[in-house]
Request: fold
Amino acid sequence: MNTMNPQAGRRSRTPSADVERELVSAAEAVLVRDGPGGVTVRAVAAEAGIAPMGVYNRLGGKEGLVAALLIIGFDRLRASIEAGPEPDMLDRLRACGMRYRQFALTNPHFYAIMFEDAIPHEQLSDEVAEHAGAAFGALVRNVETAAAAGRIEAADPTEVAQQVWSTVHGAVALELKGLLQTPDPEATYRATLDR
Reply:
């Protein structure tokens, strides 16, 4: 007598957290490969091998995908600009600025969704704003450290960090758009940091 196990032919369900990770990983793959315009619910679902409804069920649709990508981008930017190994605090602050540029040039699609609204979205969620704030906080800490070491003057480190960020962001944005008027973008950027 041949008895069959009714469970034998069923596929086990993937845990919810794993599905979310797969979707976010798929969204990143689509962003990197196809750019911001390629990030759609259908494209991400197809990349993940999940029905499009899964994107809505797990992440709340495209807004959730964008939020997840923004969090990845801001976390990577924070990791890039956090304090480095440089013993001189002014050199460390300069290196922070160079790593900011490197992040932008290496991750232009992330940079575009983070700072150019390349994928339109309603507004930053509290969670995304928290991660963006943490990235800015890393710059503030580098300014504070350089000021504490007497390498720069910064009565208000947040104000100085905002000025630094405005400058490096402007320089990087011009470079990414191909709008620089000088022959050596890196040399121009280094000179800007030195000022």
